[in-house]
Design a protein that fits this description.
There is one protein chain. The protein is mostly helical. It has one domain: Farnesyl Diphosphate Synthase. 71% of the residues lie in helices and 0% in strands. It contains 16 helices and no strands. The protein is globular and about 65 Å long.
């Protein structure tokens, strides 16, 4: 395999950003996303066949569910491997940690879609909710089993235990954040609570992914802590842009359609005068019940300055993440590889 040569994505504009095309256009001399995807899927298939019969319909169901998600690079699955490589770790070790992390992310995504009532078009016709829940449970079971395979690559028992603790900690934080999200309503949740939910649901799990990669790669305490901090701010920034897309993306807008209490709404409720807040709540209720008002709701949120505020927050998290990497003084390719997956607007 040829050596990858990275070009800094610092000047990439948000409107032009696309994860897959970025990997293909910025000096990854092989089709890295395809290679990585095949290796991820191949690892999962191989391990499943060691436990389940090769003809197992359940095993094939798990693989088909993973395939439905498309390119795993879009989920940040490569993050642990990048952190492992950044501290000089074994690529094989980083790969296994990334696969385990990918499984956990995939399970969380299934549960998130079900709990938020955002099934994909494919799911509406061929996968019922009970099957998806069952497969998510299987993915969560597979992730720690793959971590335990690291012993064959020279990773000691103590580090394996720490990685398992980190994996389950991420699961609990994600579940806790999702529970807060599910119970949110405009009358009981303020902006500060919304930020705590984002940190629990997205920031901490991503931080743990970076921590796992750095630990598996034999990183120092300072390296592990700095990469963990980078991951936290990466996860929060990703969730901010997810909320922005859920509010204003012309092909998405699921948060508006379902009246979800996302960051744009919480900001508007924080800054608008009392009378305008009442009008805003009415529009949210109409959207939630399918009575229309989505266009007016989007417009009022935009006029409140929510989009401007959230993009400033994304930039603030980017600066903090950049400071964390600067402390490490990593080789340029490692730094550029981590920055290549920094989230940006895709519309």
């Amino acid at each position: 395999m040829q050596t990858n040569t990275f070009v800094s994505p610092a000047e990439e504009t948000w409107a032009e950003y696309d994860t897959l095309s970025l990997w293909k256009s910025r000096g990854l001399v092989m089709d890295a996303p395809t290679v990585f995807t095949n290796t991820l899927e191949g690892t999962v298939r191989s391990y499943l066949h060691r436990i389940l019969p090769p003809t197992s319909a359940y095993g094939e169901g798990i693989l088909s569910t993973l395939a439905d998600f498309g390119d795993p690079l879009s989920t940040g699955a490569r993050l642990p491997a990048l952190c492992c490589a950044a501290v000089g770790g074994d690529p094989a070790v980083g790969h296994l940690v990334s696969v385990a992390w990918w499984l956990l992310l995939s399970a969380a995504r299934i549960l998130d879609d079900i709990e938020d009532a955002h099934p994909s078009a494919a799911d509406q016709t061929r996968i019922i909710t009970a099957q998806r829940l069952n497969r998510a449970t299987g993915l969560q079971a597979l992730a720690p089993l793959l971590v335990m395979e690291l012993g064959a690559h020279g990773v000691g028992t103590e580090v394996q235990v720490e990685l398992l603790q980190a994996l389950h900690t991420a699961t609990l934080h994600a579940c806790n954040g999702q529970a807060q999200d599910l119970g949110a309503c405009p009358d009981t949740v303020d902006l500060a609570t919304g930020w705590r939910t984002v940190g629990a649901k997205s920031g901490t799990p991503c931080a743990v992914g970076c921590r796992m990669g750095a630990l598996a790669g034999g990183g120092t305490v300072a390296q592990v802590d700095a990469l963990e901090q980078f991951g936290y701010h990466l996860g929060v920034a990703n969730q901010i842009l997810d909320d922005v897309a859920g509010t204003w993306h012309p092909a998405d807008g699921q948060d508006i359609k379902h009246g979800r209490v996302a960051l744009p709404l919480l900001y508007a409720l924080e800054v608008l005068p009392p009378e305008e807040r009442c009008h805003l709540r009415d529009k949210v209720e109409k959207a939630r019940t399918g009575s229309g008002g989505q266009v007016d709701l989007r417009a009022q949120l935009l006029e409140s300055g929510a989009l401007h505020y959230l993009l400033i927050e994304v930039d603030r998290h980017r600066q903090t993440a950049e400071e964390a990497l600067q402390v490490l003084q990593l080789p340029s390719p490692s730094t550029q590889a981590l920055w290549s997956i920094w989230p940006r607007l895709r519309f």
